[in-house]
Amino acid sequence: MSDVSDEHTAPIDEEALAEAYNRALALEKSGDFDAAAIAYAEVLRLDPADHGGAAVRLASMGRGETPPKAPDAYVTTLFDQHAGDFESILVDQLGYDVPLLVREALLVHAPGPYGRMLDLGCGTGLSGETLRDMAGHITGVDLSETMLEVTDEKDVYDALYAGEAVDFLENADVEPFDLITATDVLPYLGHLEAFFAGAASCTVAGAILAFSSETLPDETMKGRAFMVGPHQRFAHAESYVRETLAAGGFACLCFEPITVRHEMGQPVPGHLVLARRQ
Ligand SMILES: C[S@@+](CC[C@H](N)C(=O)[O-])C[C@H]1O[C@@H](n2cnc3c(N)ncnc32)[C@H](O)[C@@H]1O
Fold it and tell me: Where would I find the TPR repeats (predicted)?
């Protein structure tokens, strides 16, 4: 693993962490989830910020509580590592085209044009590139500075911020937006209340929120609002997304089933959602 210590936390014993993490992964792969859970608990003790995503791995094995979101340190580490090959993996190998689906849905339901667009979890800027002609000014926010460097080189966004999406929505001192996008970002968020409420607080009345989710039918979710799936991504119950969106002050314009991507050759189901701020 790359550098996992920072100036505000106690130094990490990198050697012990790497040993515990590799042991946990090997045990998980061998199917010995009980032993893997003990090893992941050790990983968390050595690295409480959880750069390796032990908490989501525990939850995906059905051990330990479902965390409220993917840890920021984990998201940052994961996407910093994959920024260089992100587009070839996601678009070319996994068939990802959610930004294009957002564009098509916007053209049908709310064609704009938009003055100020905010792209949360902008990654390498695929949504900004796809929607550039529909918005006058585009701001991108992402936890991964390495992903943002790729975006910056494309020269498509007018402003880029390194930071956490909900933190940005709650604290950024910026003019309100009339379009917010979050493509393939909900799989890294569990609780959605603060996300939707923050989106409402950063937008003008009538603004559009466009996002994708790996939504599952309520029967599959068995009463859970969200869960961590086998690929360490969060899936949400359809009713939870709808209710939380409404409670946040958004009216649904479109809630369309889509294939978000392919994983091991299998389509990953989800939804494309457009909602209007009341
Ligand atoms: C699968 S990528 C999608 C990128 C881009 N939206 C797209 O459609 O290509 C998810 C991105 O969301 C970012 N991300 C995940 N959770 C985040 C959070 N809580 N705050 C800010 N960015 C986040 C990751 O760093 C990553 O760049």
Answer: 17-50
